[in-house]
Design a protein that fits this description.
Elements: H1 2-5, H2 7-35, E1 36-46, E2 51-58, E3 64-70, E4 76-81, E5 84-87, E6 91-95, E7 101-108, E8 111-114, E9 117-122, E10 126-130, H3 131-134, E11 139-142, E12 147-155, E13 162-165, E14 169-171, E15 174-177, E16 190-194, E17 196-203, E18 206-213, H4 220-238, E19 244-250, E20 258-260, E21 264-268, H5 281-291, E22 294-295, E23 297-298, E24 301-302, H6 304-321, H7 327-340, H8 354-374, H9 381-389, E25 393-394, H10 396-407
Parallel strand pairs: 1-12, 18-19, 19-21, 22-25
Antiparallel strand pairs: 1-2, 2-7, 3-6, 3-11, 4-7, 5-6, 8-9, 9-10, 10-16, 12-15, 13-16, 14-15, 17-18, 20-21, 23-24
Amino acid sequence: MWIERNSGAVRGLLAPLLMCLGLLVVSSVQAADELAYKLDYTLELLPESEQAAVTIAIDKGKLFRYLEFDNLPGRYSAIQANGKLSVTETRVRWEPPATDARLSMRVKIPHERDPGEFDAMINWDWAIFRGDDLFPAIKSEFDDGAYAEAQLTVILPQDWKSIETGWPRRRDNVFRIDNPERKFDRPTGWMIAGKLGTRRDTVGTTSIAISAPKGGYLHRMDLLTFFNFVWPELERAFHNTPEKLLVVGMGDPMWRGGLSASNSFYLHSDRPMVSENGTSPLLHELTHMVTRIRGSKSGQFNDDWIAEGLAEFYSFELLYRAGGMTQERRDSIVRKLGAWGKGVKSLRKSNSSGKITARAVVLMDKLDKEIRSASNDQYNLDHLVRELMAKRTVSLDDLERAAEALIGAKSKVLQSPLLR
């Protein structure tokens, strides 16, 4: 009652407080704006020299004390910058100026992964490469709370038609780069440019682009149809799908395999969607890309088998769940992989070769059955994978702890001599 009769007085008392709060809000916004910096990457493709001209520009260099990255003399050349630049055979250190900081260099694109087979190439008509190889991983020291508003602009040769990346397109050849997991955003992942053929669709909540040079013989519509068929099972298994997915492909002389990145993957056009042994190279790379699990390395032990075993397991398991094969066929795949990896004595080797991966699949299948049995089908391997996805780099210890949380006791499967 007093408030109603004296509302004017109350407003008078509250006015200074509200004004103060308003000033605090404005000050907070201004403070946030002062810590925001524009990070502009520019990539110009130069087929005549088989290079790319790369530029990194920062409008507020004052927020940084330094930026450093590994020098790769066989790949990087003509490194220049304003501010203070130090270049040795192994390291580049840049102390940028207060405003309009700019570093540029030339980067060699072609890379021969195996004799006569390339995982990066540029010619007069197209280019396929990873942003990771063109834009260095940068270590930096900057003001607390500073954050980037990053984008990538691509400059194409005059007669090239398009550029595709795994990043959302802002307009034309400009892409938004936003990776909350990185303190310094970087345009990673597969990219393809030139005279291309591209098919697009939205599957679930993911925008998918499948692209290859014209005449590259990648079966784009087959791949899109396959994705539509399997995608619901992928979402159910991992509960996490990317905003955008780019698949790039080409025939020889590109490398005859598949390679995944955080938002994209490469697949040689001769690679089948489903191999004769029933596993899918496509789903193998997709599992790598979505889960982003990798095995840890510690001393003599390498747990790469975890990531490779899971990717190969889901390469047929997702297809089975989608109705693409019978139970008998699925079980036959596991038996044949077990026979192939029969001679393997340890899974914790320097890298997961084909036989080690095959043996790891059998172990993952047994672990899935153990989890299902112990939890009365309340949990399965999917739940374990989603736990490991949060860690990314995982060890045998991580796997054992995640399994024990679901089983309620130590996993008997993970006591295998293969892991000791």
